[in-house]
Amino acid sequence: MTVTASLEVSGLAFAYPDGHQALFGVDFSIARGERVALLGPNGAGKTTLVLHLNGILTGGAGTVTVAGLPVGRAHMAEIRRKVGIVFQDPDDQLFMPTVREDVAFGPAAAGLKGADLEARVHKALTLVGMEDFADRPPHHLSFGQRRRVAVATVLAMEPEILVLDEPSSNLDPASRRELADILRSLDVTVLMVTHDLPYALELCPRSLILSGGVIAADGTTGDLLADEELMGEHRLELPFGFDPKSVAGRTAG
Description:
Number of helices: 10
Distance between the termini: 26 Å
Oligomer: single chain
Helix content: 25-40%
């Protein structure tokens, strides 16, 4: 039996209207349930790639396929349900008076009502450990709590793929660990765009390095981070004193 990949990107190339070519032919596939980090220097095309995954950007060459569906006008509503993007700043996603209303917004817009909607909201908040905060205004929460609620707003749509943009940024160590525990527990495919290389090693068994608009490397996260020549070539730098070889064996489970 052939298992449909969660995400397949083939020959994806894209230039902005001003002529800047951001992607030059990107190819990769992510299996259902994988957790994969997307690494690369600033300007590598990571954001451009992510915006193609649910059709925010279109019109380039190549194809993007989500759970067997080509990203394009015909399937756009379904694609946007299947690909949930959690942006770097949770305040970009939280705009309702209460946490409950924020998490309910997407499913309600998709037609869910009554007890079914309430159950969906409760499940999403429980997954991120925020069920006790349902009636709180989001702006009264800590940054780490707001990020967890932002994840819940996406999980409430029951996506196939969770795309996270710099999920650990601005988090204190405890919030960082709590989010890592949540992401490990989820039954979804995860693509994590991050400059936080230890977090990538902790959470993602596999990493892609996007550099110069192409996939420059695709492999086991620990192996890529331990390759000093590869890291230097693509302006990726580990924190001072961090040795990926010393932790690779007990991470990314």
